[in-house]
Amino acid sequence: MDLRHAQMIQSRLVPPPQKFTMPDLAVWKITEDSKVRLLCPEPETAALAEAFFRTICSATPTVQTEPKSCNLPEEGYRLDITQNLCTIEANTAQAVRYALHTIRQLMESERGVLTSTRQQVPCVSIEDYPAMSFRGVHLCWFPETPVWEIERQIRLAAYYKFNYIVMESWGVLKLDRHPEFCWDEYAVEKSEFKRLIQLGKDLGIRLVPQLNIFGHATCARVGTGKHLLLDQHPEYAPLFEPDGWTWCVSNPATRQYLQEIVEELLDLYNEPPYFHIGCDEAYTPESCTLCMGSYLEKLASHITFFHDLLAKHHCKTLMWHDMLLAREDPRWEGYIACGSKKDGHDTLHTCLPKSLILCDWQYHYPEKDGKEPHWPTGTYLKELGFPVIVCPWDDPRGGWSLGKFAVREKMDGYLQTVWHHGQRSHIMTAIFVQGAHGAWSPETDTQTISWVSLNHHLRQLSHDMGLKEYRQFGSVQYQVDPAPYQD
Ligand SMILES: [Zn+2]
């Protein structure tokens, strides 16, 4: 067996599996006469496998189930494919889904003919399981994002074995209680969100909401100067610091307003296990006359109020980390820290509940003398007693390195951020392909042929959705930028 051939077949898989072997170049042809042996204690997984082969492979092989558990973690699976039999071992429906995703990524069409919808799979043995249990993608739904695009990103995240999506609406979700908190001409009805939340459930990925309760109060990128609420409704100015970027945490009306939105989101997302309260990049705190003086107590009380409100709903609070670290502190040189020592933000942590889960976003790759970054912010926040989730962005080295760091230092998960780069082809590769590697199997060093793999997978997902238009295929909507665009 030529090692190059095995590597080529293995490189089809995103994320790379933990253990992969391929004895020869034989294939399993998926036909009506094929056999699948499914060993799983959950009997309903047979229907999952049958539906997969029917819809994806246009064939209905016999799926023979045996209610047996195996010595694998909850989301782990074993796949053994020979010319005559495909055997899947797993303990849960989620693990069976992951095995089926792997089969789909390995598949190729019947070879040597003009056209065919039949599929075949190289004979391989795989044992696979995630390196950590929280593997999220943070998705931003901008007014410019079409529904199909966000849906395809949800499908892609599920296909790449992430299990959570933190969904941040940038002014598109039309709420009942506060319909003014939305761009009228880009409003998306709650029923559309409900459809996607259910789709996520069916695909094995849980959608959870985000609402910024401190900085980023504009629900728009700072470089654009837009403000979701004040551009359309200037009378709501008392809810914000005078420049509008940060919520005014001293105004009781702000707390009431945000609480009403939080409660509506909890209901919409079916009492989610997590809720992200943002809190990054609050550039202008304590800038109104009401906020001036004893600000840290006011801010801590504001954050704690929402943490406690969510805890009553059995919901854990996720929060960006950066306002807890002083940017002047030499320990964080090269790393992200946005708080100020002078304003006491570096001691804010002493007044906050330790069950807040801090999302440590580190978007650079601050190597020193060619050495991998050591990510000291995560270690420090963990030592303070908080659970910490590592959050890379668009540097492909960062995702993999942070994934390895998270496993080594026993961090609490991985949250891949996307921001406004969900439609940039080479950056999407860093975000989704390298991100999946960082979250699932960072300790494997398999090379994935990432760009073309991503294109192939996006084509599969566009077909699943029945998409037909030019801009709905590929990793970008247009090959040539059709409009001036803020970079
Ligand atoms: Zn204020």
Oligomeric status: single chain
Strand ordering within the main sheet: 1-9-5-6-3-4
**Global morphology:** globular
What is the ordering of alpha helices and beta strands?
HEEEHEEEHEEEEHEHEHEHEEHEHEHH
CATH architecture of the largest domain: Alpha-Beta Barrel
The CATH class assignment of the largest domain is Alpha Beta
Structural class: alpha/beta
Number of separate domains: 2
State the end-to-end CA separation. Answer: 48 Å
- Please bin the fraction of helical residues: 25-40%
CATH topology of the largest domain: TIM Barrel
Total of helices: 11
Ranges with pLDDT <50 over ≥5 residues?
none
Count of individual beta strands: 17
Q: Describe the sheet with the most strands.
A: 6 strands, mixed
Describe this structure in words.
- With 487 residues, the protein is an alpha/beta fold.
- It has two domains: 3-128, Chitobiase, domain 2 (2-Layer Sandwich), CATH 3.30.379.10; 135-472, TIM Barrel (Alpha-Beta Barrel), CATH 3.20.20.80.
- Helix content is 31%, strand content 16%.
- It contains eleven helices and 17 strands.
- It has helices at 3-10, 45-57, 93-106, 147-159, 190-203, 252-268, 295-312, 376-383, 396-408, 425-440, 450-464; strands spanning 19-21, 27-30, 35-39, 62-66, 77-81, 86-90, 108-109, 119-122, 125-128, 135-141, 164-169, 206-210, 274-276, 316-320, 357-361, 388-391, 414-417.
- The strands form four sheets. The protein has a six-stranded mixed sheet with strand order 1-9-5-6-3-4, with helices on one face.
- Helix 9 runs parallel beside helix 10.
- The mean pLDDT is 95.
- Bound molecules: zinc ion.
